[in-house]
Amino acid sequence: MADQKLRCALVYRMEAGKTVNLAKYDHASQYESHGGAATDETSLYGGKDKSYAEAVAKVIANDPPSGLSEAGTIGGFKVVQSDQHQVVYGADSEGICMGVITGLGYPSRVAIQMLQDLYTQFMESFGKDSKTASEGALSKKGKKVLTDCCAKYDDLSKVDKAASLLGKVDGVKASMQSNIANMLKNTEQADALAEKSDQLNEQASVFKKKSGDLRKQMAWKNMKMTLLLGGIIVVILIVILAPLISKMKKN
Questions:
Q1: 6 pairs with which residues across the strands?
Q2: 43-82 pLDDT, tens digit each
Q3: For residue 240, what are the β-bridge partners?
Q4: Listing from the earlier edge strand, what are the strands of the sheet with 96-103?
């Protein structure tokens, strides 16, 4: 999943031939000490010995906001990406420029929304100072405004309805996948039970057939024994009665 982290917020004043960084806040607390994740000179932030604020200032100077909006509002937004991060920035008609560094997965529409919000709050407090302040002069004064704005837009689910909806969809998707997995498991168990039931039915049929055959065999054996015993009894009767009958005839 692409990086959706909010990294830094910056405020500049664009002048002829230079871009002055008035205030900056490193929300990720890593770029001043590490200069970004990459050390490649072609990186968006330059080598590890270069400040992210200076690197973004160069980006703005090379490709300044265009089609600036009317006084009192910010516009002309630009999005510049490196292989790991993106810079989103825009300016008002007097050259006050707001910028933010985010991961590539952070929606640019939310970044623009943040810049508009940041511009309104910052200019309400430091509008006059921003026209004449020197490099870095408003970082300390404007820290609360920058911090509050970064904290507000750090959690996409709270400021971006689309992200919130996607989060809910992912939750429902995970729940459905779990339910489907359980259903498949139950189906497999049901199939196994059905197979065992069929086997038991088949065994019962075989047992019933064998029982019938055995019953017939036993009945036939009983009949033979009965006939044999009957024959023996007849023979015994003949042996006993024959002399008596013969004697009775002589008398």
A1: 102
A2: 444 444 358 899 999 999 999 987 666 778 899 999 999 8
A3: none
A4: 18-26, 6-15, 96-103, 85-91, 75-81
Query: Which tokens is 135 given?
Result: 């490099």
CA distances from 136 to 3, 125, 232 (A): 28, 16, 130
Q: What is the pLDDT of residue 158?
A: 83
Residues 6+ apart with CB under 8 A from 142: 11, 22, 23, 25, 122, 125, 126
In DSSP terms, 21 is beta-bridged to: 12
User: In 3D, which of 103, 73, 107 has the Cα closest to residue 91?
Assistant: 73
125: pLDDT strictly greater than 80: yes
| Rounded Cα–Cα distance for residues 80 and 67 (Å) | 17
Pairwise CA distance, residues 151 & 154, whole Å: 5
142 C-beta neighbours (distance < 10 Å), count: 25
CA torsion, ordered 15, 21, 23, 26, to nearest 10 deg: 150
For residues 74 and 118, the answer to whether their CB atoms sit within 8 Å is no
- Output Rg (C-alpha) for the chain, integer angstroms: 47
Token couple for 133: 């302040």
At 121, list the tokens.
């709050």
Nearest-angstrom CA–CA distance, 201 and 183:
26
Distances (CA, A) of 191 to 37, 92, 179: 54, 69, 18
212-228: per-residue pLDDT in tens? 788 888 888 888 888 88
pTM of the model: 0.59
CA–CA gap between residue 11 and residue 91 (Å, rounded): 10
